[in-house]
């Protein structure tokens, strides 16, 4: 415990000087909060390979004509992307530190084929890379006829309270 305190104190001092130089003022509570959160993330031991599949039935609510992304009654690209994001979010949800969540930051995807109303679409996300708070997923969607979309999705681990405070 004593070792941890010295380590954190050292970080506060180092970070403290950098904040002073760039901003001219310090909010010690924010510094302590940031360091503690970073320490929790580092120790959460998130491993690659985590997988989750989310499923939805194509309905009037998630077709292109209703969502405004097109004028056909086929599974909408925004609905496919949301399903992929949900799978990625769910893949790591149980591994996050308390008070944390993930937020989507980048989606690079291709919608390959249409899916008809009544068909079931499943999106699978596999965690491929962990770089600190940055999580990179391989995502793929398929219906009863095969793959309909695939891509890469990046999410970041954030502290819920601190993230939401940025809205004010």
TrEMBL record:
Domain of life, per lineage: Bacteria
Domain Fluoroacetyl-CoA-specific thioesterase-like residues, every copy: 58-161
Classification via InterPro entries: FlK (IPR025540), FlK-like_dom (IPR054485), HotDog_dom_sf (IPR029069)
Gene3D superfamilies in the cross-refs: Hotdog Thioesterase (3.10.129.10)
Protein's name according to its UniProt entry: Thioesterase Superfamily Protein
Native source organism of the sequence: Phocaeicola vulgatus
């Amino acid at each position: 415990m004593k070792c941890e305190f010295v380590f954190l104190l050292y970080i506060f001092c180092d970070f403290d000087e950098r904040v002073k130089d760039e901003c001219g003022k310090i909010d010690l509570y924010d510094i302590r909060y940031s360091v503690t959160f970073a320490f929790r993330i580092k120790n959460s031991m998130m491993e690659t390979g985590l997988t989750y599949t989310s499923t939805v039935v194509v309905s009037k609510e998630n077709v292109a004509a209703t969502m405004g992304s097109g004028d056909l009654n086929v599974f909408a690209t925004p609905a496919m992307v949301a399903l992929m994001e949900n799978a990625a979010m769910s893949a790591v949800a149980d591994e996050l530190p308390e008070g944390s969540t993930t937020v989507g930051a980048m989606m690079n995807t291709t919608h390959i084929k249409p899916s008809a109303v009544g068909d079931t679409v499943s999106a699978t996300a596999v965690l491929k890379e962990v770089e600190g708070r940055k999580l990179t997923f391989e995502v793929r969607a398929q219906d009863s006829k095969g793959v309909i979309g695939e891509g890469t999705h990046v999410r970041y681990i954030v502290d819920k309270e601190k993230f939401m405070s940025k809205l004010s």
